[in-house]
From TrEMBL:
Record bears the keyword Nuclease: yes
InterPro entries in the cross-refs: DUF222, HNH, HNH_nuc
Source organism per UniProt: Modestobacter marinus
Domain HNH nuclease: 315-367
Protein name per Swiss-Prot or TrEMBL: HNH endonuclease
Keywords on record: Endonuclease, Hydrolase, Nuclease
Transport recorded as keyword: no
Family that this chain belongs to: Belongs to the Rv1128c/1148c/1588c/1702c/1945/3466 family.
Alphabetical list of CDD domains matching this protein: HNHc
One term of GO molecular function: endonuclease activity
Pfam families hit by this protein: DUF222, HNH
Amino acid sequence: MSELISALDALAADDLHALTDGQVLDRTAMLVQLGNRVAAELTRTVRQSDIVQAAEWDGLKSMRSWLIGHARLAPAEASRILRSGRALEHFPVLAAGFAEGSVTAEQVDVVARKVGPVEVARAGEQGIDLGASDEVWARVAVASPHQSLLAAVQAFEDALDPDGPEPDPTEGRRLTIATHADGSVTGRFDLDATGGEKVKAAIESIVQADRTQGDVRTRAQQNADALVQLADNQLASGNLPTLRTVKPHVVVGIDLDDLVDPATGAGAGELGFGATISAARARHLACDGSISRIVMGPDGTPLDLGRDHRVVTPGLRKAVERRDRSCVFAGCGAPTHWCDVHHLIHWLHGGETSLSNSALLCERHHTKVHHGFRVARDPDGRWRTWRPDDTEILIGPLVR
């Protein structure tokens, strides 16, 4: 083990700038293989620890809890290692490819997720040769695209019960969401074919409806914006189930001084699920929301709670929707039910909550306007949009 650590120390001391392109690629391929071999040895070691219940030595009941608590692995990663170790006992050829570095940990997990103890037992009952599948999977993992291995494992699963009852598609659905220290959120989901098709269709409908001229977002950014828009639409509809006696909504707590200060004010607002946002972002959300005043005592105890006040009344929103009919940002045209009512002059700075001081903006362009873009309505009723450098965004025929 000490020799391995010394070898890694030597690698870390290499000057990568001195390498040619070919040498960098060769080094990358070698490190991928080495990483696979280390992952294989970790999997083998964890499996042995699981068998002998080594975690009891440190007072824990399972290797999963040990990996989470002592190695600080994410729960999903700890589960993956344990699942792979158990599965590889039935597939020696795949295990050998993993040990020599030609098979990746993710490829092993493709098999382990689908072929557990239940599937192994059923294969034995039906006389299905696991050895043949093991050789095929190992060969496909080394020589074919990742999708081919998925298809090969799925074919094995289908062969176990070709005429059996249709499985419940919801059993394999998973959605995990993690909130980081800066309030940002990452997640992962696993869906069956039908559920995935529904999600893709819903996201695609918004992506295609929001394709404006000059849009430079990547496809991943478009998908993420569409997902947020879906959530925004549902929250705004008022049809979601209640959450602790009230309709679900975005909650922001912020001191009045930070809210009215025109500075960005990083970390000034606290969201309902604990994340922090800037005062600028809180002002954005306050454009079209409800405001409650809470007077706090010096010891942090609430002394007085004011009545909840809706900034934009339902009647005003109807009037703005009837006048604007869609997002007014140049080139957009998103439908009214995607949009917030934006104060052209924020009510915090003396702007009236009135029809003349309001504009309908979709979630994406509302954010743009709070980050330097500007919209204004001419006396003839035409909306115009300016970039942060005060150049106007003009929509017209393309110049070729």
